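[step 3/7] fold_predict: job queued, chain A
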Amino acid sequence: MKLKSIFRDFIARGAGCDSKTQPVEESCLLGCSRNIQFSPKESPSQESIWANLPPELLLDIISRIEADNTAWPRRRSVVSCAGVCKNWRSITMDVTRTPEQCGLFTFPMSLKQPGPRDSPVQCYIRRDRTTSTYRLYLGLSPALAGDSSKFLLAAKKIRKATKTDFVISLSANDFSQTSETYAGRLRSNFLGSKFFIHDCQIQTNPTFQSCGWSWKKISTNRVSPRPPVCSYNVASISYELNVLRTRGPRRMRCVMNTIPVSSTQQGASVPLINAMPGFDYDGMFSPFSIPSIPENSKDSLVLENKVPRWHDQLQCWCLNFRGRVTIASVKNFQLVAATDSQSSASDDEKVILQFGKIGKDIFTMDYQYPLSAFQAFAICLSSFDTKPACE
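[step 4/7] structure written:
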């Protein structure tokens, strides 16, 4: 009898649950029909228990996680904290420091923020000749970093009739300019003597137009439409012509349109980017604006390559790369501020960006403040393009 009562109770509960559901007949495209049971929805006011933690306790937890995980892949735990809920995300963004402060990369927006002031960020670039792609990794070299190398950015070289484009993406395989991972591009002129770095933007007001902006229309057939993807000229790179090849190695000059020359002074800073283009964590568009300086303005930071010296014994041009470059190549260079490019060799500590070859299709890239990883990567990509009139 006891077992029968259990079954009766179970059947009664089942009948009660069925009475709360409403059968709905849905017509299929093939002409058939089926019955679908819809259960009552849960109350939207119900929140996760993790969202109700005291702010003081939550701040202590995230601060400990951020302090303990200082290298990839362990730093994924910090990113996971930002994906729990809105409260966790807000505190994580407040606790996480910028690359200028700690030299660490956490979120994609870190790739467009200035590097540390004291020591350079050491990266390397792997070139794939078959697919014309270039991938940037965080680490000393493939041999030393191994599987712990953190992928940062990728670029694909696209040759055209009168120009060459390097499409830069946050993904290693997706180089579509309508993708959420699109970061920007590098474009050259016909001779390969001048390059322009375009940073991606999202145009929130379609009636607004200004010098330096360009946009393209996105097909309306997309499932998730976005505002027009715009590009803004954040820097220009020029190589001095050397048709007769009588001026020695390459000479390059970079004008950073979004970095004021005063940023290199003590106590000055570069305007930070607080969001990446696309959708933010809350599902809304998160456009960011890059403060710009008029092109060719005297207030823009100008970088020039450090002039190498001729070595009589080795019979080649040499630069002190401090062991980071091991193979001679025309692509190797060091960039310093224009005011320091003609100074003595005692200013080697002020190298802002250096790039050089260490193996077959392997190159090192070390940069520091005020450049970002995106800007440094784009400048190094210009060295890969063919320059028949500059070598």
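[step 5/7] annotate
Confidence is low (pLDDT under 50) at residues 14-46, 202-225, 276-296, 343-347.
The longest helix spans residues 2-20.
exit 0
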